[in-house]
Structure to design on (946 residues):
């Protein structure tokens, strides 16, 4: 009884674009999964179970699409499991998959998350009329912008912090060949001049809408040891946690949600992290609107209350800072919604495996992946390390 | 990838890259008990929320106290004036939206309620809207009032002094909630447990 | 594997159309019924997992607001599957295996009534080749039934026997939506609905909810006299493409049953998620059930078929019978997708 060790032994992702018209939905998940299998040097036959996640089915216009994707995922005759926890789903899907190994049920699990927003129309899917509720705001930006304004007021942050985050993440994205947005001409001024969509959120401070998929192969201790012996370092999963809280509750703080902080505290405890700022080498956090970087820095214990923006402003979260954040370019560069959480988790794994290419953080041994969803109410996090726990 | 051998008749045919398959599904929704009662009152130009067992008043009520997961049968009429707790200025013409841009979408804490509702603010330039501004409901003409929140066309400033200390409800009830103070993680005991009455600001256990 | 048991089960009375309640209002009595029966609150629960689907609700992220039924405050450890609640129970069972928490709440719900269910389910099919044909769920089941009859593995009379037995059993089920006592021979006089299926071969369309509490080891023994221990649980999927499958057998059920250890002991009771009568015949065979096994004493999905919930209810029904001492060992089954595409098998046992 108790938990077995588990590690990421293969990482794969697609090229992300606004429209991946060159592949079907099956082709998209297959592209990410095949790359993860190749990276892990395992075949489809080696996989014991498949765990898939994505955000609302209306994005593609297919109900429970894992049913028709069973063939493409090589899952026929195997267990196929589908997770949906709103925007955090990519993270929670990887966690559910890791638990299948930790519980000793399977040796090698393939987990995949995807979104092919171009199949349907994401704006349509996100703005399906909610029965009995007038359409008085405008999508996710309209929902989150007032929370961001509250953060700015509460923290006394100057207005330019969000733009600094957007600039940093877009510049990081230039180093990531898989990123959706590659904007070599991006500058502080171009961000500042971009249209104010949901004041205080400018266009250049928002995430794109992407087609894409991410896949991981998770292996048991024996499997990961074998990979390590073969010169392919595993990313050991040293902590996983999820927390949820109600959307519309008078008790909750929508800017710095208690659930997010409890999730972080739980995952650090498991991973033996006592001082997150000191003990963590880099973080991929879910930042769909630039201002969420300083907010999450506070929520996840990297900064004192009201001080997150100062960390951003100081350059601490840059690729060469003392706590690089969103080395891959993050959600601001790539946002296939259902896969966005898993891409965070995958980047954390790439970093501790030393395989992050041009956006590698030197000497990264401990990395955090973070995802959130709903009205800042669903949280999923993991910690991965280069060292076997 | 295995090579696909096409029959001769298909060899020179351009491959199909995509197909359009329009789908239409019609749904008939039921409002449920709490929403029905709320909307019937709206049709009478009254804003009636429900009081949760813990004392918080929810407007609009959705049938469940989100802290206890219990029904909230006690109805409480709240004021039609309130305070802006936060807002954004929308400059994007949104699919399905009927607004003229720019418009202000605001979180408004009605007097007597414990959670802000989202609604529009008009009759004031967008760049003059402030957190803490006092606003009041503007209803459609009597003949056009229906059981929908759209019967309130928007909110407008009352001209009262701002409530300079207004905070979002959760921030007000807790003490930082999701903040780490002195490097110490928050705990669930930071908030009052609605079932046991334990915990909450002040550290009472 | 760690010993994990079902210790509490609650469900709503399922109905064709629950007009007066929204989903969260419909769900609350089930969730709190399951907790109250064992004197627990959400504070006593280590992990919560639910199953539902947006396409039935007709709203994206529909599970978000129904979480309020639980009262997730302070924040809880929670997850959701876009699957039947039986798979939510599987996730909770896995979580309990890790030894960090000892209890779990599992719930699921659906209103099928807002949309046209057979049409909504067509959206599950291959979006390029099949979904545009709007091949509805009853017609696909009818194809399967015809294949079964053509293979000489079932007759319309046997199917009518399943309907007659299930609906009569449902008379004793207070949660049932459809219950009556009519002889099979009389049923065969009806015209086919979608040949060879007659109306009695098809499930009702239901709105409803269910909840289950799981507990591990002593946490279970402390709370109930006779926990229903999960001795094995497994699930498998097949291709959605009906042309790639032998529709007269359920290979994924057979595999899951093997992994769950159905054949490792005698089976007193089986609750099979067979929405259509002929599917019970396929499943009995795939599970290797002896002729004397009591199948669907609750009436099964033919008595009430709340989508995303009917599978979880099967586990609940077996657990309830074990808890009551009416059975020592039982098999529960859940299905998803067209023509039994995906199947879960759970073996439950009373102590000793």
């Amino acid at each position: 009884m108790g938990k077995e060790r588990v590690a990421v032994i293969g990482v794969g992702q697609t090229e992300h674009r606004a429209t991946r018209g060159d592949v079907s939905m099956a082709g998209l998940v297959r592209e990410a999964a095949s790359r993860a299998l190749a990276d892990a040097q395992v075949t489809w036959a080696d996989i014991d179970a498949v765990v898939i996640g994505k955000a609302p089915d209306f994005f593609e216009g297919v109900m429970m699409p894992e049913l028709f994707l069973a063939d493409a995922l090589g899952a026929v005759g195997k267990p196929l499991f589908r997770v949906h926890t709103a925007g955090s789903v990519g993270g929670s899907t990887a966690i559910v998959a890791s638990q299948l190994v930790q519980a000793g049920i399977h040796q090698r699990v393939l987990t995949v998350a995807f979104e092919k927003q171009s199949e349907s129309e994401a704006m349509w899917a996100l703005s399906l009329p909610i029965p009995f509720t007038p359409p008085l705001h405008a999508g996710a930006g309209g929902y989150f912008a007032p929370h961001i304004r509250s953060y700015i007021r509460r923290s006394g942050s100057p207005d330019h912090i969000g733009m600094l985050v957007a600039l940093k993440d877009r510049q990081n994205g230039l180093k990531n060949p898989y990123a959706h947005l590659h904007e070599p001409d991006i500058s502080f001024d171009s961000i500042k001049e971009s249209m104010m969509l949901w004041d205080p959120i400018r266009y250049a401070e928002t995430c794109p809408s992407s087609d894409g998929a991410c896949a991981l192969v998770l292996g048991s201790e024996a499997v990961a040891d074998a990979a390590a012996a073969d010169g392919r370092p595993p990313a050991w999963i040293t902590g996983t946690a999820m927390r949820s809280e109600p959307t519309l509750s008078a008790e909750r703080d929508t800017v710095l949600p208690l659930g997010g902080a409890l999730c972080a505290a739980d995952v650090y405890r498991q991973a033996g992290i006592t001082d997150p700022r000191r003990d963590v080498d880099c973080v991929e956090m879910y930042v769909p609107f630039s201002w969420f970087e300083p907010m999450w820095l506070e929520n996840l214990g990297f900064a004192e209350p009201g001080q997150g923006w100062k960390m951003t402003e100081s350059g601490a979260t840059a690729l060469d800072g003392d706590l690089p954040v969103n080395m891959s370019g993050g959600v601001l560069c790539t946002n296939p919604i259902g896969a966005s959480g898993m891409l965070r988790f995958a980047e954390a794994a790439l970093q501790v495996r030393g395989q992050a290419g041009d956006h590698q953080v030197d000497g990264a041994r401990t990395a955090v992946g973070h995802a959130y969803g709903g009205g800042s109410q669903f949280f999923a996090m993991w910690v991965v390390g280069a060292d076997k726990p | 990838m295995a090579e696909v051998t096409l029959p001769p008749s298909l060899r020179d045919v351009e491959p199909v890259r995509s197909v359009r398959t329009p789908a239409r599904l019609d749904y008939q929704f039921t409002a449920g008990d709490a929403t029905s009662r709320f909307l019937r009152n709206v049709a009478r130009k009254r804003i009636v929320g429900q009081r949760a067992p813990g004392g918080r008043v929810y407007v609009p009520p959705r049938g469940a106290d989100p802290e206890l997961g219990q029904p909230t049968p006690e109805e409480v009429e709240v004021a039609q004036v309130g305070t802006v707790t936060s807002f954004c200025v929308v400059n994007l013409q949104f699919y399905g939206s009927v607004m003229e841009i720019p418009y202000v979408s605001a979180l408004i804490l009605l007097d007597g309620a414990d959670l802000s509702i989202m609604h529009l603010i008009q009759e004031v330039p967008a760049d003059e809207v402030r957190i803490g501004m006092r606003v009041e409901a503007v209803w459609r003409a009597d003949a056009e009032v229906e059981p929908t929140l759209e019967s309130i066309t928007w909110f407008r400033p009352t001209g009262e002094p701002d409530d300079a200390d207004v905070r979002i409800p959760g921030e007000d009830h807790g003490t930082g909630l999701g903040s780490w103070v002195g490097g110490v993680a928050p705990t669930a005991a930071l908030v009052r447990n609605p079932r046991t009455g334990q915990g909450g600001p002040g550290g009472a256990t | 594997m760690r010993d994990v048991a079902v210790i509490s089960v609650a469900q709503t009375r399922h109905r064709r159309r629950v007009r007066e309640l929204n989903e969260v209002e419909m769900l609350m009595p089930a969730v709190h019924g399951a907790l109250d029966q064992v004197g627990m609150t959400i504070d006593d629960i280590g992990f919560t997992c639910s199953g539902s689907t947006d396409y039935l609700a007709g709203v994206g992220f529909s599970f978000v607001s129904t979480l309020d039924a639980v009262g997730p405050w302070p924040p809880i450890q929670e997850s959701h599957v876009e699957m039947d609640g039986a798979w939510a129970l599987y996730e909770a069972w896995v979580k309990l295996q890790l030894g960090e928490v000892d209890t779990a709440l599992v719930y699921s719900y659906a209103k099928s009534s807002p949309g046209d269910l057979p049409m909504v389910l067509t959206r599950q099919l291959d979006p390029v080749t099949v979904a545009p044909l709007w091949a509805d769920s009853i017609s696909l089941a009818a194809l399967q039934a015809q294949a079964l009859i053509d293979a000489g593995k079932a007759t319309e009379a046997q199917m009518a026997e399943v309907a007659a037995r299930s609906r009569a059993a449902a008379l004793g089920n207070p949660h049932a939506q459809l219950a009556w006592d009519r002889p099979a021979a009389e049923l065969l006089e009806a015209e086919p609905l979608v040949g060879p299926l007659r109306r009695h071969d098809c499930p009702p369309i239901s709105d409803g909810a269910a909840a289950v509490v799981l507990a591990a080891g002593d946490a279970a023994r402390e709370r109930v006299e006779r926990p229903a221990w999960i001795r094995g649980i497994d699930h498998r999927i097949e291709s959605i493409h009906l042309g790639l499958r032998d529709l007269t057998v359920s290979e994924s059920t057979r595999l899951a049953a093997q992994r769950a250890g159905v054949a490792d002991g005698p089976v007193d009771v089986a609750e099979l998620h067979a929405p259509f009568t002929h599917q019970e015949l396929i499943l009995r065979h795939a599970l290797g059930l002896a002729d004397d096994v009591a199948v669907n004493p609750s009436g099964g999905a033919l008595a009430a078929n709340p989508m995303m919930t009917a599978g979880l209810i099967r586990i609940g029904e077996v657990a309830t019978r074990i808890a009551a001492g009416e059975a020592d060992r039982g098999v529960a089954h859940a299905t998803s997708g067209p023509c039994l595409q995906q199947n879960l098998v759970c073996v439950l046992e009373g102590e000793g």
